[in-house]
Amino acid sequence: MPPKDFRDAIVTHLTYSLGKDPDHATVFDWRMALSFAVRDRIVDAWMASTRRTYAKDAKRVYYLSMEFLIGRLLEDGVINLGLEDEARRALEGFGLNFTDVVTDEPDAALGNGGLGRLAACFMESLSSLGCPAFGYGIRYEHGLFRQSFENGRQMEAPETWLQQPHPWEFERPEARFLLGFGGTATATGWTPAETVYAEAYDTPIVGWQGRWANTLRLWSGRAVDPFNLEKFNAGEFTAATEGEALARTISRVLYPEDSTEIGKALRIKQEYFFSAASVHDILRRFEAEHADLGLLPSKVAIQLNDTHPAIAGPELIRLLHDARGMDFDEAVRIAQGCLNYTNHTLLPEALESWDETLFGELLPRHLQIIDRVDAAHAKAHPKRKVSARGDGRVKMGELSFILANRVNGVSALHTGLMKTTVFKDLNSLHPEKIINETNGVTPRRWLHNCNPGLSALITDTIGDGWIGDLEQLEILVPHVDDAGWLERYAAVKTANKAALSDWVMDAHGLKLDPQAMFDVQIKRIHEYKRQHLNILETIALWQEMKDTPNADWTPRVKLFAGKAAPGYFFAKEIIHLINDAAAVINADKTTNDKLKVAFLPNYNVSMAERLIPASDLSEQISTAGKEASGTGNMKFALNGAPTVGTLDGANVEIRERVGAENFFLFGMTADEVEARRAIKNHAAKAVAADPRLKRAIDAVAKGVFSPGEKARYKGIVDNLTGPDYFLVTSDFTDYWRAQRDADAVFTDTAAWSKMAAMNTALSGWFSSDRTIRGYMADIWGAESLLEKDA
Ligand code: 26V
């Protein structure tokens, strides 16, 4: 496209879509104008994709997810369409800086963490691969809360991404479905007591090079009777709009819990709301083109992202049986032909189950259907009793498993553990159902866009084919032995670290030394992820630096970021401890030039894009067997930050690919963890065996970091020296050893750069393109509709 055309498009939108004169436009106005100009191009690709899917009568993939952690869309759109140079030049012509404009966009934080971000990466890869697909979710008015610290404690405030107009979505008032709750069920139907509309908002998601675009369809709650004139005329102004307020409550806010199952009525309503609306929409689209419902499994693949959309199964059966008169067993078979389920956690406290009374009150007909499905399953497999019902609860994992054609885990280790733990019995009945699809991340956002310096070096070295085919990074391997090339690689990291240091100074007033090792742990705060192991090691390191300040220490910057669920007390205490320890350590003149600690507030996707390219060391230190996969671990490896980590989740596969010599392994294996936990007083023994660990814990216990309130961390100390379920103390000694190994390599700049570059060169397999190809072939039976010659 000639540059002038794109420039004109921006000005046209500024003038006619925003009603602004270029002389008086704000950064916001320019950002909206640029977004609309980019969106126009995306829409062209989008319509072409839709037409092609219809013309080919292709099988469509439906990805149902309670969360899509998208972040910003503008820069992604610009770069995927190849419009970056034009956009930069156009904005510069108006005296604006491209980065200022694209970073004006608020993050769409419609997710908690890994599960939601995976869904967003998958949407991008589905489009990049030309797989006809829809994402279905909820258009939360408020995404994940905004985090701040007050005296080191986490504070939560509502997030307001929709306060400004959102340029990427199209409201579809014509795409609405009436959904029911409560009421009474009979053997053939359901009379709900309450109804609400689900209304669609569509966002086009464009793939690499703009060759394909799919739809992310998010549902919003609307009242059936939004305005009561009678009440209004009687002067009851608030009551007059009560119906609308209530209906909107359903899509008002994302639940911030990702650690414990919450069992709230509104949560189950949200789950039914978006799952049912999506199933209605899927059937409507199918029936517009096909008369024979028996064809459904050959035209429709539905992926349940965890159990949150599990109710889509019973809803599909209800629509086929109750509403369309299909035989019940046939309806179940059809549903099983379409549905698949991904499990993302083995933590028992995060596995969803619903109280049957609450469930039956809200979805009485669905409860009957589940019982009938369950009874049929029990009858077919009389030897082993596995049920989606029991102890007065509806178990969503079992339900999803029984109604799925394929069930998958998200890393090799996790999938293996699924077979031997949560789904042991079901797996023995259906040994072919469980398969593995190791997670991946989109290389466009997580390398090409967030790390332009490294992207340019790679492209300069091997051409740009890697952006759409990440395993080409392997071609870099021989260059790693070229000292000149390696220096260029290291220079990119140094520049990224300098840029991050400037930002940390500007935004948080903390001075970092870009020469120091940037050691980074960014993720949700959870006991199993063991941020407290990291801070204990930091404290021990500080103590030792104080002992011998003139020894040859490798300078470190310890960076933390992440949110704790508002109700997760222990996780909030960990945040508080890190902040308290940071205050004391950063104020210590004797160690100041060697050790700095910072907890950056309000972690989100955009912050990850800033931090990861500037990281030297990636902290992936969960208790083995607990992290299903991790995806941050892949982003760090790609961007040249070797891992210090346990044999957990996808760490195992990362180490296999980048090589054991390029990975700082420590800690017990999943099997060893189980054995260790069975030993009486394991924590007391571990503490007694390591004076360094004992001294660090003692400092916390004595109030070194909380002088005003010496017993502040009694909870953490008692846990660590008592039950220590996550084996922080047992893994400490080996973690310390691995950290010192990292120190030693870091002092040899060439050796470290080589290790970092090998991580980049050998982690191409962790592209979500590879993951999605796996789902397409092994689970969905879906095909790419990209024109091969393009
Ligand atoms: C859990 C729950 C529990 C019930 C209440 C609502 C709720 C909402 C979210 C979650 C999230 C837990 C599952 C999750 O995020 N798992 C993560 O999935 C990533 C993608 O597969 C994976 O990389 C992480 O290891 C895994 O922890």
Automatic annotation (TrEMBL):
EC number in record: 2.4.1.1
Catalytic activity: [(1->4)-alpha-D-glucosyl](n) + phosphate = [(1->4)-alpha-D-glucosyl](n-1) + alpha-D-glucose 1-phosphate
Enzyme class, UniProt record, top EC level: transferase
Annotated keywords: Carbohydrate metabolism, Glycosyltransferase, Pyridoxal phosphate, Transferase
InterPro entries per record: Glycg_phsphrylas, Glyco_trans_35, Pyridoxal_P_attach_site
Cofactor(s) essential for the protein: pyridoxal 5'-phosphate
Domain of life of the source: Bacteria
Protein name per Swiss-Prot or TrEMBL: Alpha-1,4 glucan phosphorylase
Lineage, highest ranks first: Bacteria, Pseudomonadati, Pseudomonadota, Alphaproteobacteria, Rhodobacterales
